[in-house]
Specification:
The protein has 393 residues and is α/β, with parallel strands linked by helices. The protein has eleven helices and twelve strands. It comes from Merismopedia glauca CCAP 1448/3.
Length: 393
């Protein structure tokens, strides 16, 4: 049976992430009848079993022999609820690492913002995740677990998934692809309801394109030229915008799916009219969509959120030049809002599912922002805020 590799501290391979056929083969390897595979599959993906001991349709004797075999589920370490009912979670994994995920509800959908790594190595200059440093890639089952955790906690089906949490998904491509397949085929979420976000890694977009997935590719651009982009995203010095866009165009050609460009608006850094003109020129004739994201300030970076007037003016400039653009308004914009901040300020003990703290030092945060940028903050002391005052308003 070929299942997902687990962290080195876990001795047995977790069952979460396995398909019905794989689970059926596994139970038969254990000397059990074939139909046990379907039972196991239903208990993992439909009933949310956290351990094999919970699967009461199995004999007690067999369950006792499987005590060292994990399903691969996490524990809710901390749970933060915003006034708009968005929920941000810190999940404790089998090796003790902590990962963030977010449940974003609306009247007709439930979106999960999932992480693909613990920490992030991209060292972007305006986001919180990388402050804690990069630890490791997440295994496929640890990504799938985030989706199931939100689904079970909200007691409703997850409809959409965005890979915009901690980490750079295309630096963990194999496990992300395994998780996408599982969430699609086993959890039952359509590929067109999934988005994979990336800052751009040379060659990785083309690798993703070869799989002919129907997911949305979201590229974190954040600047209309290489000079500014390299100041905001240090890794961009190895991946010029021209090369990035070339891979994006090939992605569109191979998949038939348009690309979304994420552009975090930083007050008087990348939100001038001239920069909007430049961005429009860069994307002209490209099958794409621009998501404008007003910045969510964090304590460790000296950037500010632009005024609504500046945000609207930037969007209008793009639209006037026939660039499809929308403004992604934040949800739950309050304390510990940005990706990585809640983890950095994590309490020492578990928060129960009812939201009550089990530690007198743990003060539940009451608000979050799931739509903050996924890129990592530089682990070095933050640079002075970039300003480009030479550009016209």
């Amino acid at each position: 049976m070929s299942l997902v590799s687990s962290p080195s501290t876990v001795t047995a391979t977790p069952l979460l992430g396995a398909s019905l056929d794989e689970l059926t083969n596994w139970v038969q390897e254990q000397g059990q009848p074939r139909y046990r595979g379907k039972q196991l599959y239903e208990w993992i993906y439909d009933k949310g079993a956290k351990s094999l001991e919970e699967i009461t349709v199995f004999s007690k004797q067999w369950r006792e022999t499987l005590q060292e075999t994990p399903i691969g589920r996490s524990q809710i370490h901390y749970r933060s609820v915003a006034s708009d009912k968005t929920v941000k979670y810190l999940l404790k994994l089998a090796d003790g690492q902590i990962v963030e995920t977010v449940g974003i509800p609306s009247s007709d959908r439930l979106t999960v913002c999932v992480s693909s790594q613990i920490g992030c190595p991209m060292a972007c200059d305006f986001c919180a995740t990388g402050k804690g440093g990069f630890q490791r890639n997440l295994a496929a089952h640890e990504i799938v677990d985030q989706v199931l955790t939100v689904q079970e906690d909200f007691k409703r089906r997850v409809s959409h998934i965005v890979f915009m949490g901690m980490g750079e998904p295309l630096l963990n491509t194999d496990n992300v692809l395994k998780a996408l397949k599982c969430v699609n085929q086993d959890v039952g979420i359509g590929q067109r309801s999934m988005t994979v976000s990336t800052v751009g890694i040379p060659g990785k977009i083309l690798k993703l394109a070869k799989h002919k997935l129907q997911v949305t590719l979201a590229v974190s651009l954040h600047a209309p030229n290489d000079k500014l982009r390299q100041q905001l995203i240090p890794s961009a010095d190895r991946y010029p915008i021209s090369d990035l866009l070339s891979e994006c165009k090939e992605y569109v050609n191979q998949t038939g799916r348009r690309v979304t460009f994420e552009y975090v608006l930083l007050d008087r850094v990348n939100d001038y009219a001239q920069q909007a003109f430049e961005l429009a020129s860069l994307l002209r004739g490209f099958q794409s969509h621009v998501n404008l994201i007003p910045y969510n300030p964090i304590a460790d970076a000296d950037y500010q959120r632009p005024s609504p007037q500046r945000v609207k003016a930037f969007a209008d400039t793009l639209r006037d030049r026939n660039i499809t653009a929308s403004i992604r308004y934040s949800r739950g914009l309050e304390a510990d809002a940005a990706c990585g901040q809640l983890r950095a300020n994590q309490p020492g003990e578990v928060i129960r599912r009812d939201g009550e703290s089990e530690s007198k030092n743990a003060n539940p945060v009451e608000s979050i922002n799931p739509s903050s940028v996924k890129l990592a903050q530089n682990t070095k002391p933050s640079k002075p805020k970039l300003r480009t005052n030479s550009l016209p308003e």
